[in-house]
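User: Let's play a game. I give you a shape written as C-alpha cells, and you guess the letters that built it. Ready? Here's round one.
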C-alpha cells in the first residue's frame, strides 16, 4: 500500500509538471515541423521504445481482439484527435493560452460522468469546477494572450480536442486493456503514430530528417518523447485505473500554471499579475476537486 501511494504521488507529479511543460515544447517544435508529422514521429518513437522495454522486462505482449479494438479507440481520442489536433491549433495560439483551454477538461469529465453514469456531483466538486472556470475566465479575458487572426478557430478546435480527451478518460476507466501499462500505452502510441503518419501524408505535409532540425527542435522532440510520452502518458494511464477520472483530470488545472510560467520564461509570452492571480484560483479549484473523493470514502 505504501509503495502504491508513492507511485500514485509520482504519477500525479508527472502529469502535472511534465505535461505542463509539453505545451512549450510542442510550441517550439510546431514552429518548424508540420503538426501531424511532428505528432507521428513523437508517438511512434515513444511507443516503440515502450514496447521494447516491455519485451525485455518479459511483459506479455499478446493482446485480445477486444483489447486491440479498445487500444485503437483510446489512441484516437487521446493521441490522434485529443493531442495532435490540439498541437495543430498551437500554430495560432500561445502555448500558455492553449493550456488554459485544456483546463476545461475537469468540467467536461464531471458533466459526462453525470450524463453517462448518472453520477452526482458533490458540493466540493462543483465548487472546484466553479473556481476553475473563474480562474480560466480571468486568464482568457486578457487580449494580450491571442497572437493571430486565426486564434478564434484555434480556440474552438482546442475545445473540441478537450472534449475528445475527456471522453477518452471515461472510456479508459471502464475499457478492457492490457494490464501492463507499458504494453497498453506503447501499443496506443504505435497505433496513434501510424494513424498520424497517414493523416500527415493525406495533408501532403513535408517530412524531414531529425538531422536537419534545429537544436531547439531536436531537444524539444527528445523531451516530448521521453518525458511527455513515455513517462507522463504511462503515468496518466496508470492513474485512470487506480483513481477516479475526474481526479486525474485535475492535471488540466495545474498544467496551465506550469505552461504560463515556462512560456513567459522561455518564449517571452505574456505573464501579467492577472495571470498569477488566476493561477492561484485554479490551484484552489484543484484542491477542492482532489479532496472530494477522500471525503466521499470516509462516509
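Assistant: Ready! My guess for every position:
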Amino acid at each position: 500500500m505504501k509503495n502504491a501511494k508513492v507511485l500514485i504521488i509520482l504519477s500525479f507529479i508527472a502529469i502535472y509538471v511534465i505535461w505542463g511543460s509539453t505545451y512549450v515544447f510542442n510550441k517550439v517544435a510546431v514552429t518548424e515541423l508540420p503538426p501531424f508529422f511532428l505528432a507521428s514521429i513523437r508517438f511512434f518513437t515513444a511507443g516503440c521504445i515502450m514496447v521494447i522495454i516491455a519485451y525485455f522486462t518479459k511483459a506479455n505482449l499478446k493482446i485480445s481482439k477486444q483489447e486491440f479494438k479498445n487500444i485503437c479507440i483510446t489512441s484516437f481520442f487521446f493521441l490522434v484527435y485529443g493531442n495532435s489536433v490540439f498541437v495543430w491549433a498551437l500554430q495560432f495560439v500561445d502555448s500558455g493560452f492553449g493550456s488554459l483551454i485544456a483546463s476545461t477538461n475537469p468540467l467536461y469529465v464531471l458533466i459526462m460522468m453525470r450524463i453517462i453514469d448518472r453520477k452526482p456531483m458533490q458540493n466540493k466538486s462543483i465548487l472546484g469546477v466553479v473556481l476553475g472556470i473563474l480562474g480560466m475566465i480571468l486568464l482568457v479575458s486578457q487580449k494580450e494572450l491571442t497572437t493571430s487572426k486565426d486564434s478564434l478557430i484555434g480556440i474552438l478546435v482546442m475545445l473540441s480536442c478537450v472534449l475528445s480527451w475527456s471522453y477518452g478518460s471515461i472510456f479508459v476507466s471502464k475499457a478492457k486493456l492490457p494490464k501492463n501499462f507499458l504494453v497498453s500505452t506503447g501499443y496506443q502510441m504505435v497505433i496513434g503514430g501510424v494513424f498520424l503518419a497517414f493523416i500527415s501524408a493525406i495533408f501532403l505535409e513535408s517530412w524531414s530528417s531529425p538531422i536537419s532540425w534545429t537544436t531547439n527542435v531536436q531537444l524539444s522532440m527528445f523531451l516530448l518523447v521521453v518525458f511527455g510520452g513515455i513517462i507522463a502518458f504511462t503515468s496518466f494511464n496508470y492513474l485512470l485505473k487506480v483513481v477516479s477520472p475526474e481526479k486525474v483530470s485535475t492535471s488540466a488545472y495545474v498544467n496551465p500554471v506550469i505552461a504560463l510560467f515556462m512560456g513567459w520564461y522561455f518564449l517571452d509570452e505574456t505573464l501579467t499579475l492577472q495571470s498569477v492571480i488566476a493561477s492561484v484560483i485554479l490551484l484552489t479549484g484543484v484542491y477542492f476537486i482532489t479532496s472530494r473523493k477522500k471525503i466521499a470514502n470516509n462516509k
